[in-house]
C-alpha cells in the first residue's frame, strides 16, 4: 500500500482477474454532514416538491369535520373534530391496504389523546403532566412503529386543546366521540385515492428508487458519491418496505404485483452493481446511463415509456464484456425489458417474499424501548421537556399555559441540538408573524362558515409549504391553531395575541434546553457500537457469501441483505444525529472517515452477496478476513487503535481489501486524536 496525491493506492503486483479493473486509487470520500445554525437554515427552502396533494387533503378533511360537527353540536366541539381530522396528514406514502389499518390506530391515538386531555382538565397541574405523558408516549409509539412526519406533534396539540374545551369530566365521552368523527373524516379523505389509482403508493416508491439510482449514477466520480449512495439505499429500503406492505392475499398473486416486485429486485441489484462501479471510478459515467435510470422510473407506472436497451450501446462500446461497467449496463438493459412486459408470471423473478407485510406490533414497541435504541431517550426527552414546559408556564402565571408545551414539542421534533435550535428560531419567527395575522383574522366578526373556511385554507397552505420550510409553514399554522383554540374557548383577542408571542418564546427556549440537557450524548455514545455492529454483520455476510462449502438459498440471501442494509442505514442515521449534538460533534467529526469506510465495506459485502458468479475463496483467506473484522470491531468497542495484521491477498476483491485497510487507518487516526474533520 502507498499514497499518491493523498489517495490510498494498492501496490500489489498481481494482475487483476479478467473483467476487473486494477484497484489503484480509492475514491475520495464525501464531505461530512455539517448541520449549522445560520440564516440559510432558518429562512431557506429545502429541496424537493411542494406538498400540494397533502395540503389539499388536509384542507378538505378539516373543512368537512369542523363544519359538520359545529353545525350538529357546537363550534367548540367542532374545533375538536377539526383536530381529529389531522389523521389525514399521516401515512401519506403507504399502500392503501396498510394505510387503512395504520390510520385506524392513529385515529384511536387521537381519540385517546382527547380523552386524556379532557380528563386531566380538572387542574392545570394535572393537565401539564398529561400533555407531557402524551408527548412521550406518542414519540415512543410513532418512532417504534416508523410513523412518518408529522409524528407525535399533533397528538400533543390535540391533547392540549382538549384541556380547555368546556364540559368537565362528564363531557369526556362526548369529546372523544367528536374527535372520533373528525378522525373518521380524515381517514376517508386519506383513503379516497384508492378510487383513482389503487397501486400508486407502491409504484411511486419503486419509481423513487430508480430516480435515486439515476442520481447515484450521476454522482460517480464526484465528491458526492457517498451521500448519493446513502440516499439511493434509503430509497431502495423504503421501496421494499412499501411493496411488502402492499402484498395482500388477493393482489400478491396477480401479474401486476409480480411485475412490480420484479422491478424492485432489478433496482436492488443494479444499485449494488453501481456501488462497485462508484468505488472503482474517478471519472463520471456517460450521461445516457443516468438518463436511462430516470426513464426506468417513468416506466414503473407506464410500461410503454420503458427505454430501449439499444440506447446503452454507445456507452458499452469498447468495454470488456466482464467489466463492472459492462455488467451494470447489461442489468439496466434487462430491467428495461422487464419493465416493458405486462404478463409477468407469478412464479417468476419477483414472486419470492420472505418477510411479513408488517412486523408484529408488540415486537416493534419492545424494540423501540430497548436500551440499544435511540427511541427511548428521544421519547423520554420529549415527555419530560414538554411536562416541564407546562409546569413552568403555570409557575410563571401563564393563563394559557398549554401553548408553551405545544411549542416545546414542536421544536423538539428537530432531533439533534442544531436542528432543534434551527427549528426553534423558525418557530419563533413564524409564530411572531402568524400571531399578527391571526389577531387580524380574529378581530373580524367572521360568521362560523367563514371561520371553518379560513381555518381549512390556512391548514391547506401550511401543509403545502411544510415540506420546504417550517418557518413559512408556521406563519399559516399559528393563526389556524389560534382559530381552533379561540373557537374551543373564546378569550380576549388582544390578550391571546400578546400571550401567544411570549408563550412561543418560552416554549422555544425550554425545547432547546431539553435538547441540550437531556440525553444529548445518546447518539454519540452509541456511534462506536453501531459501527461495530455493522462490521459484524458485514463479516457474517462476506464469510457466508465467499465460503465455497456454503450454498446460500434465496431466503437466506434475502435475509442477509435485509439485515446488512438496515445496519448500514442505521449507522448513517446515528452519525447524522451525533454530529448535530454540539459541542459533542468535535468528538464525532473525526469518525466520519471510519463511517464511510464501514459503509463502503458493507455495500461491497452486499454486492458480493448479490453476485451470481463469485470466485471461490480459500478457508485460510476467510479465516484471516474474519480475524481482521474481529479486531476492527474490538478496537471500536475498546476505543483504541486496531492492531491489524497482514490482510489476506484477495485479487478477486481488491476494493474490499482497500476499504478494510482504509478503515483501520481511519481508526488509528481517530484514536490518536489527529483526525481532521474532513479527512
Description of the structure:
With 679 residues, the protein is mainly alpha-helical. It contains 27 helices and two strands. A two-stranded antiparallel sheet has the order 1-2. α4 runs antiparallel to α7, α9 (225-245) runs antiparallel to α11 (255-280) and α9 crosses α23 (554-579). 51% of the residues are buried. The model is unreliable at 1-23, 347-351 and 674-679 (pLDDT under 50).
- Main pleated-sheet profile: 2 strands, antiparallel
Q: Tell me, rounded to a whole number, the average pLDDT.
A: 85
Q: Any low-confidence stretches, pLDDT <50, length ≥5?
A: 1-23, 347-351, 674-679
- Largest beta sheet: strand ordering: 1-2
Shape: globular
- Structural class designation: mainly alpha
End-to-end Cα distance: 18 Å
CA-atom Rg in angstroms: 27 Å
Order of helices and strands: EEHHHHHHHHHHHHHHHHHHHHHHHHHHH
* Estimated helix fraction: 55-70%
Strand percentage lies at under 5%
Strand tally: 2
Count of discrete alpha- or pi-helical segments spanning 4 or more residues? 27
Annotation keywords:
transmembrane helix, 67% helix, Memb_transporter_dom, transmembrane, FUSC family protein, membrane, mainly alpha, 679 residues, disordered N terminus
Amino acid at each position: 500500500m502507498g499514497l499518491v496525491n493523498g489517495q490510498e493506492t494498492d501496490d500489489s503486483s498481481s494482475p487483476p482477474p479478467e473483467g476487473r479493473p486494477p484497484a489503484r486509487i480509492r475514491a475520495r470520500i464525501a464531505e461530512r454532514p455539517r448541520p449549522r445554525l445560520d440564516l440559510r437554515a432558518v429562512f431557506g427552502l429545502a429541496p424537493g416538491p411542494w406538498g400540494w396533494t397533502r395540503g389539499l387533503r388536509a384542507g378538505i378533511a378539516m373543512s368537512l369535520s369542523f363544519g359538520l360537527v359545529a353545525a350538529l353540536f357546537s363550534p367548540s366541539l367542532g374545533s375538536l373534530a377539526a383536530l381529529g381530522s389531522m389523521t389525514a396528514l399521516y401515512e401519506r406514502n403507504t399502500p392503501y391496504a396498510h394505510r387503512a389499518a395504520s390510520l385506524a390506530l392513529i385515529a384511536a391515538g387521537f381519540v385517546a389523546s382527547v380523552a386524556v386531555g379532557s380528563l386531566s382538565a380538572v387542574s392545570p397541574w394535572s393537565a401539564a403532566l398529561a400533555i407531557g405523558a402524551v408527548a412521550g408516549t406518542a414519540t415512543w409509539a410513532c418512532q417504534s412503529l416508523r410513523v412518518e412526519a408529522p409524528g407525535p406533534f399533533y397528538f400533543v396539540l390535540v391533547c392540549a386543546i382538549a384541556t380547555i374545551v368546556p364540559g368537565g369530566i362528564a363531557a369526556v365521552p362526548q369529546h372523544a366521540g367528536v374527535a372520533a368523527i373528525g378522525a373518521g373524516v380524515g381517514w376517508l379523505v386519506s383513503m379516497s385515492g384508492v378510487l383513482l389509482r389503487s397501486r400508486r403508493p407502491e409504484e411511486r416508491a419503486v419509481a423513487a428508487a430508480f430516480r435515486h439510482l439515476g442520481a447515484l449514477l450521476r454522482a460517480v466520480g464526484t465528491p458526492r458519491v457517498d451521500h448519493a449512495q446513502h440516499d439511493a439505499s434509503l430509497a431502495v429500503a423504503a421501496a421494499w418496505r412499501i411493496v411488502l406492505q402492499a402484498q395482500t392475499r388477493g393482489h400478491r398473486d396477480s401479474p401486476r404485483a409480480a411485475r412490480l416486485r420484479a422491478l424492485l429486485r432489478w433496482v436492488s441489484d443494479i444499485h449494488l452493481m453501481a456501488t462497485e462501479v462508484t468505488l472503482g471510478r474517478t471519472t463520471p459515467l456517460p450521461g445516457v446511463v443516468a438518463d436511462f435510470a430516470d426513464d426506468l422510473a417513468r416506466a414503473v407506472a407506464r410500461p410503454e415509456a420503458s427505454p430501449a436497451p439499444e440506447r446503452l450501446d454507445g456507452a458499452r462500446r469498447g468495454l470488456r464484456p466482464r467489466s463492472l461497467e459492462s455488467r451494470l449496463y447489461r442489468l439496466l438493459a434487462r430491467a428495461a425489458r422487464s419493465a416493458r412486459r405486462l404478463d409477468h408470471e407469478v412464479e417468476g423473478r419477483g414472486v419470492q417474499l420472505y418477510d411479513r407485510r408488517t412486523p408484529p406490533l408488540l415486537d416493534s414497541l419492545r424494540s423501540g424501548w430497548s436500551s440499544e435504541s435511540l427511541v427511548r431517550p428521544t421519547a423520554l426527552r420529549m415527555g419530560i421537556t414538554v411536562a416541564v414546559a407546562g409546569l413552568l408556564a403555570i409557575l410563571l402565571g401563564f393563563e394559557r399555559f398549554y401553548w408553551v408545551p405545544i411549542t416545546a414539542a414542536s421544536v423538539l421534533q428537530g432531533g439533534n441540538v442544531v436542528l432543534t435550535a434551527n427549528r426553534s428560531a423558525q418557530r419563533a419567527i413564524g409564530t411572531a408573524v402568524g400571531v399578527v395575522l391571526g389577531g387580524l383574522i380574529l378581530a373580524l366578526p367572521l360568521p362560523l362558515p367563514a371561520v371553518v373556511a379560513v381555518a381549512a385554507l390556512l391548514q391547506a397552505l401550511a401543509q403545502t409549504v411544510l415540506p420546504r420550510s417550517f418557518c413559512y409553514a408556521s406563519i399559516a399554522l399559528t393563526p389556524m391553531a389560534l382559530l381552533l383554540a379561540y373557537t374551543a374557548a373564546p378569550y380576549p383577542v388582544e390578550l391571546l395575541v400578546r400571550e401567544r408571542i411570549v408563550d412561543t418564546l418560552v416554549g422555544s427556549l425550554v425545547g432547546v434546553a431539553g435538547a441540550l440537557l437531556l440525553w444529548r450524548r445518546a447518539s454519540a455514545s452509541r456511534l462506536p457500537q453501531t459501527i461495530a455492529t455493522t462490521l459484524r454483520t458485514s463479516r457474517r455476510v462476506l464469510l457466508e457469501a465467499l465460503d465455497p462449502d456454503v450454498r446460500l438459498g434465496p431466503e437466506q440471501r434475502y435475509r442477509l441483505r435485509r439485515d446488512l442494509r438496515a445496519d448500514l442505514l442505521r449507522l448513517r442515521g446515528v452519525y447524522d444525529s451525533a454530529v448535530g449534538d454540539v459541542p459533542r460533534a468535535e468528538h464525532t467529526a473525526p469518525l466520519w472517515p471510519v463511517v464511510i469506510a464501514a459503509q463502503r465495506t458493507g455495500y461491497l459485502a452486499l454486492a458480493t452477496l448479490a453476485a451470481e458468479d463469485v470466485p471461490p475463496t480459500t478457508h485460510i483467506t476467510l479465516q484471516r478476513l474474519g480475524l481482521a473484522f474481529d479486531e476492527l470491531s474490538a478496537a471500536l468497542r475498546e476505543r483504541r487503535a486496531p492492531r491489524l495484521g497482514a490482510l489476506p491477498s484477495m485479487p478477486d476483491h481488491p476494493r474490499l481489501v482497500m476499504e478494510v485497510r482504509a478503515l483501520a487507518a481511519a481508526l488509528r487516526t481517530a484514536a490518536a486524536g489527529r483526525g481532521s474533520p474532513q479527512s
